[in-house]
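Hey, quick one: can you model this chain's 3D structure?
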Amino acid sequence: MDGEACADQMAEYDAGVNQAHAGAIAKICQPGGAQNECPGYSSNAQVIGLCLQQMWDEGPPPVEPCEGECFQTYGHFINMTDLSMKRVACGFYTTASGKVWAVQNFTR
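Sure thing. Here's the predicted structure for all 108 residues.
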């Protein structure tokens, strides 16, 4: 399964169980090295304009290495700026009620 198909499958799975990262935890496909997720947004435009911006706005962590609670706070930004990540696969799923779930799987 290619990266985009896996990301789409994970977005649909996570929406179905209403839990971010559930597909990655269940290993329903091979996502890669890291994952960010925008769960239950009102539109694709909101995923791009709000969710991804919020992740970026976390900014760089105050300490290195950033683990545990630090990573919980800054992990999205870390994933987005990790120079060892060479690809990102984006998956989208829209629920029957119109909520958009978007997954970004980063790979080395």
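One thing worth noting: Residues 87 and 107 are 5 Å apart (CA to CA).
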